[in-house]
Design goal:
The chain is built from 10 helices and no strands. With 192 residues, it is an all-alpha fold. The mean pLDDT is 88.
Length: 192
Amino acid sequence: MTVPTGRRERKKAATRQKIADTALRLFLERGYDAVGIRDVSAEADVAVTTLFSHFASKEALVFERDDDFEQRLTLAVTDRAPHEPLIPALRREVQALVRHCTADSAAPIRHMIDASPALREYADSMRLRHAEALATAIAAAPDLRQTTTACRTIARFVIDAYAVAREADDPEAAVDEIFRMIEAAWGVTCPA
C-alpha cells in the first residue's frame, strides 16, 4: 500500500482505517449480520455518506485490504527482476499472502467470512476481479507474449491457489503442490 504524502491524503487514509477498524471490531463482537452501516458510522463518529465515500458496501468493510491484495499480485508480475520467471515470482507472493491470512490472528475473520453467505459471495466476486487484473498484468508483460486465454487461465489458477491453500491443513505445502501444477501448465503454453 502506498503511503499518502499530503496532509489531506493522510487524513483520508486515517479516516478510512478508523472506519475499517471500527467495523471489524463490531462485526467480531456482535456478528456480521447484527451490525448495520449506521452502527459502524456512529461508532466511528463519521457520517454514513463519509463511510460510503470510503467503502462501496458493508461487505467491503471486511475486505478493506482488497486493493492491496490485488496490487501485490500484479506487482509480482510487473516488478519482477529482468529475466525472472513469472511463476516463481507469483508463488512467492501467494505464499506470503497465505501466511498472512492463515495466521492465528486471522482465524476469527476467516470464521466470520465462512459463516456469512453475503461475505462468501463478495469474496467470490473479488477473486474474479483479482484474476482479471492479474491476467491483464501478465498479458501486458513484454517478456511473456501469451494468448489472452493462457493469461486468464494462469491468473485464475493463481487466485484459486491462494483460496485452496488457505483452507489446507498445511497451507505452505499446498502452495508448493499447487504451484508445481501451475508451473507445468505454464510450461505447456510457454515452452522453453
